[in-house]
Amino acid sequence: MAVPKLLVLGAGRMGTALAAGLLRSGWAQRGDIALADPDPAARVRLGDRYPDLEALEAPVPADALVLAVKPKDVVAACRALPRGGYGRALSIVAGVPVARLEACLWPGLPVVRAMPNTPALVGSGASAIAGGSAAGEADLEWAEGLLSALGVVVRLSEPLLDVATGLSGSGPAYIFLVAEALIEAGVLAGLDREVATVLTVQTLVGAGRMLAETAESPERLRAAVTSPGGTTAVGLRALEERGVRAAFLEAVEAAVRRSREIGAEH
Ligand SMILES: NC(=O)c1ccc[n+]([C@@H]2O[C@H](COP(=O)([O-])OP(=O)(O)OC[C@H]3O[C@@H](n4cnc5c(N)ncnc54)[C@H](OP(=O)(O)O)[C@@H]3O)[C@@H](O)[C@H]2O)c1
């Protein structure tokens, strides 16, 4: 058997989403990617859904490696890898510092650490990456190439990955909370829950697309829908009176602090 281009360790939600995204984007063809997972159910799920991906019980050597196991499993998983079997590695394991990964792998292996987020599961993720001590420009470009199959990618220094964790890693949950609150507000004001949900979801999708697809800043987009003395102006004043802006600043600060604490535990 030819050596695969990529061995993904962990055929869970993220590992599978990445491999499927790479097939979809044309980065990989049938046989280029193998996923190793000791869980037979994960392998069956993968084989049923993506016959072009190879599902293995144990890892095999490959050109490159992706670590996509849970943080608690990563040290044991790295130690069980064929030593020297990969030219470079990308870790999407949340919270585990690159130095810790380098220590469990082998000297000189270029390692790139990434912090993706859950919209990666639908191809609209936001990932931040940082290179380890042996990772050079070519390794960062390679990691960007992989993760761009799941959405946008930015480069940061490793300490700032904690900030990305608090902002874009936890961010989808903040937005889901906003969605819940808007739906409740619609129901309170008399809409059926189903109708309130359709209107809320499409409002978030539409506002997100305007932010992503127009060159306008959020401030200008907001000003454009805020007529003097109108409905949006009084709605925004109510939000500001309740300190919504300050609440988001504090939410991200708290999440960044927690990310640093978790990193220190590994
Ligand atoms: N989900 C997200 O939105 C998200 C966002 C950012 C980062 N991440 C990171 O992505 C990683 C994967 O998350 P996930 O949601 O995809 O987790 P998941 O669905 O639990 O997938 C992990 C898979 O790895 C398997 N596994 C455990 N030990 C292994 C080993 N030694 N070798 C190979 N496979 C092994 C697990 O099997 P068992 O079930 O039998 O243990 C499981 O099937 C995590 O580190 C997480 O922090 C996830």
Describe the structure.
The chain has 266 residues and is of the alpha/beta class. The protein folds into two domains: 151 residues, NAD(P)-binding Rossmann-like Domain (Rossmann fold); 93 residues, ProC C-terminal domain-like (ProC C-terminal domain-like fold, Orthogonal Bundle). It has eleven helices and eight strands. The chain has an eight-stranded mixed beta sheet with strand order 3-2-1-4-5-6-7-8, sandwiched between helices. α5 links the parallel β7 and β8. The radius of gyration is 21 Å and the shape is elongated. It starts with 5 loop residues before the first strand and ends with a helix. The mean pLDDT is 95. The chain binds NADP nicotinamide-adenine-dinucleotide phosphate (NAP). The site of NADP nicotinamide-adenine-dinucleotide phosphate (NAP) has 26 residues, from α1 and α3.
Secondary structure layout plus pairing:
Elements: E1 6-9, H1 13-25, E2 33-36, H2 40-49, E3 54-56, E4 64-67, H3 74-79, E5 89-91, H4 98-104, E6 111-115, E7 125-131, H5 137-147, E8 151-155, H6 161-169, H7 171-188, H8 193-213, H9 218-224, H10 231-241, H11 244-265
Parallel strand pairs: 1-2, 1-4, 2-3, 4-5, 5-6, 7-8
Antiparallel strand pairs: 6-7
Helix pairs in contact: 6-11, 7-8
Bound molecules: NADP nicotinamide-adenine-dinucleotide phosphate.
Question: In brief, what are we looking at here?
Answer:
With 266 residues, this protein is an alpha/beta fold. Helices cover 51% and strands 13% of the residues.
